[in-house]
Amino acid sequence: MSEHNEFPHPEFLASTGWLAERLEDDNLQVVDCDLPDQYRRAHVPGATFMDDHYQKDPDANRVHIMGPDAFALMAQSLGIGDDTLVVAYDNSMGLYAARLWWALNYYGHANVKVLNGGWRKWLSEGRPVTDAPAKPPSGRVFTPRLDPSFMVTADQLKEDYLKPNVVAWDVRSLGENLGHTTRGNRRPGRIPNAVHLEWLELVDHRTHLLKPAAEMRRILQSHGITPDKRVHSY
User: Fold this and answer.
1) Among 19, 35, 150, 182, which is least packed by CB within 10 angstroms?
2) Which superfamily does 152-233 belong to?
3) pLDDT digits (tens), the chain, 234 positions
């Protein structure tokens, strides 16, 4: 039985034990989503590494996700094809791994999991590591199939954000929410009526594991983020 069965969608997550048993699977591709220096120091055997862990389009001033053709080339360079099972991990409490999970799903590749606990849990358990760069399998073809349900546009959000059945969820830091931290934005602050709950509140900072499902559900409900609402996060 999966240790993640407490979650509504346990298939979105991989445990370190599950991954360790499958490292030799031909159709599995592990992707290290963190910083270059960390990858060079040590990583999960067979893990490939991407230079841009936000998958943003340099031609659009890195505001939007890269286009389908560029994304397909990036995915193929990591060893990801249409039939590849992907496991993404990082040492940043899931920040960049979850980004790749979202980006792959946005382009129609749902066969992807985030390693719960990431590099910290893998290393603390004495799992195998290496500093040898992985050579991704050649010949894999990634076909982008855009799924717009994974994205909300600014126009859609402007129409929705005040509706009673909609929650605009600001996952950023409190400083960004209050406008004290600009992060280079010309207009600091938040969407009016947005609920603020920083994403870090849902992760155990010591273990890098997601908090238990019941605790996460309690935290979300206390902020009005409930299953009956349509949630737009930013």
Assistant:
1) 182
2) Rhodanese-like domain (3.40.250.10)
3) 478 999 999 999 999 999 999 999 999 999 999 999 999 999 999 999 988 888 999 888 888 999 999 999 999 999 999 999 999 999 999 999 999 999 999 999 999 999 999 999 999 999 999 999 999 999 999 999 999 999 999 999 999 999 999 999 999 999 999 999 998 888 999 999 999 999 999 999 999 999 999 999 999 999 999 999 999 999
Q: Which residues contact 134 (CB under 8 A, 6 or more apart)?
A: 43, 45, 46, 47, 48, 49, 79
CATH homologous superfamily, domain 10-147: Rhodanese-like domain (3.40.250.10)
